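Hey, I was hoping to borrow your eyes for a little while. There's a protein on my desk that I can't quite get my head around. The fold is given in discrete form, as structure tokens running alongside the sequence. I'd be grateful if you could look everything over and explain what you see. Here's the protein in full, and shout if anything looks odd to you:
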Amino acid sequence: MKPSLKTPASAIVLIVLLAWLGYYIYLNWHDFEQLSLVSPWLLVALIALFVLTYFFIAVVNNALLRALNVKMPLGESFMLSVVTGFYNLITPFRGGMAVRAVYLKKKYNFAYVHFLASLSAVYVLTFLVASLLGIVSTFWIYSETGMFSWILFWVFAVVFVGMLGIIFVSPKFREHKNKWLNRFIKVINGWHLIKHNKRVIFVTSFVTLIQILLGSLMMWLQFRVFGIEVSFVSAIFLSAIGSLSLLIGLTPGNLGVQEAVVVFSASTIGISTAQALSAALLGRAVGLVVLFALGPIFSWVLFRKGEKGKN
């Protein structure tokens, strides 16, 4: 077996991003000193919203599993979603998905092929909704402020048209040796698994919309904690581009990548780097606290039950 280069590559990317982060903060420490926790009580709301987001992730996962004849209690699905998020943080290239796939295979005899296909189908709808919200928010921001980012507009537009093409044209491709190209091919082919199930499509699309709006509310609150005034539409814009950053997924939990994307995007709509970085890091801190608190506990509960079920 050839040694995988994924982990070293992921580690290098993460180290580079963290080094850039530390160097930037060092050079611009005065800007960060001017920020303070104006509304620390909002941290409680952020934690609650983060947990609620995982509840909706569980709802989507349940809808997909039921469509594939797997009936999982919602509570178990919620715990598994949190466990997936936890392992995504501590392993490269979204390793939590592998943990989830193994769990479903062992307990429900759910084929790995079906798991990857259903996951890809969710991504199609997630990227469709996120890119549409991104396009709408881009024009809304332009109408209110006169600021317009052509780069991000074209990112949203290309993803939106691409996802529409997958949905309506539904091409099916052979897998490719190139891992990056193959990632997109799997997303495209996965759509065929649920394309005829209108209920699953509706539930997934609606819940995905709620998730992104919840993420937007969290983003808005992350700025408010520091007393930074941003419009909710700007928060939607940043949340949408943050959702699309999942396409990259180079580091554990997209650590550093998502923050870099959000900071760059914020600069195009007049939000300073220090402000955007502080808000992004606060959101990351909330996620880390919740996932590291609940992830190990839920892992123990789920896999202990799984072992008992075998005996």
